[in-house]
Amino acid sequence: MGASVCVAVVLASSWAMAQAIPYMLTDWACGVIVWPGAVPSYAEHFTQRLTHAAEAAFGFWGYDIPTSVKGAYDEANAFQIHDPATDSVRTIPPLGWADRETLPVVVFAFGSVDAIRLAMGDTELYAAFWSPWPLDPGGSPEVKEWILAVGAGYRNMICTSSATDEVLIHEFAHWFTFQWCYSQGITAPQLPNYIVEGIAEVTCASAKDANSTVYDRLQAYSWAQNKCLTGSIQGVMKYPVGASIVGYLVDTLGTDDFLRTLREWSIRAWLMIDQYQAGWRESLGLPSNCPQEEVESTGV
Ligand SMILES: [Zn+2]
Fold this sequence. Notes:
The strands form 3 sheets. A 5-stranded mixed beta sheet has the order 1-2-8-10-9. It has a 3-stranded antiparallel beta sheet with strand order 3-6-7, with no helix packed on it. Strands 4-5 form a two-stranded antiparallel ribbon. A hairpin with a 2-residue loop joins strand 6 (95-97) and strand 7 (100-102). The protein contains 12 helices and 10 strands. The chain is of the alpha+beta class. Helix 8 (238-253) packs across helix 11. The protein folds into 2 domains: 2-184, no CATH class; 188-298, no CATH class. It has helices spanning 2-18, 43-60, 113-120, 141-151, 165-184, 193-203, 210-226, 238-253, 255-260, 262-267, 269-283, 292-298; strands spanning 23-28, 31-36, 67-68, 79-83, 88-92, 95-97, 100-102, 105-110, 128-131, 156-160. Residues 170, 174, 197, 200 line the site of zinc ion.
């Protein structure tokens, strides 16, 4: 009871701000889509692509997508959103996955990358963003307030409605990673960032064009010539290096056993690096030992 009172108060105070930016809602298989502005003519096509991308992301790892719970559910796992079309609160039921209830996913489908940048501010964002946690968007305070108010700040995907399948699958792979780790009691945010991005890149690899796959491999090779794996990789190299190491691990261990290594990656990444770095480097055609200078210069 206390929880629902709380939700009502938050919604009431956020309505004024939420209405500052007009939007429309439509359903999708795993939640609700927020369309800033109006629902575009291609909404149905995009909605199908969204569902297919979620199926591809979960399917790569051998899992079905979470689907809406039928019947009774815990209200704490439902999502309440103001529907401007009816000027009322809509309740989106929780999703069921791995014998648990989980929050539905709110997809903000912006019309362009510029519109996202306005909302999110100066981020690394290229075309899409996934967050299981409260977002901290930059950009104008009004838009920030709007995203937090409408999306309630979590289980959000922010993307352009022209995002490629590769991008959508990449983002939903983050959802899968979060969901799988959560189901196993693993703290996903403790994973090295290159493992997180590597999982996403490997998951969407089949939707990538061959040229960018080759380019990614070359980048990983060049990086590993001079550097060693540590707890994280700054900047954009976490994508190709992550794709390379996760690709190697999935090829070597298979998807199930790779997923089982995530617990260790989340609490003792250095042990996993000790165990797998040499084999990974050899798979790239590099000497198994790390370049010594880089080890000293990073102090690890
Ligand atoms: Zn990512």
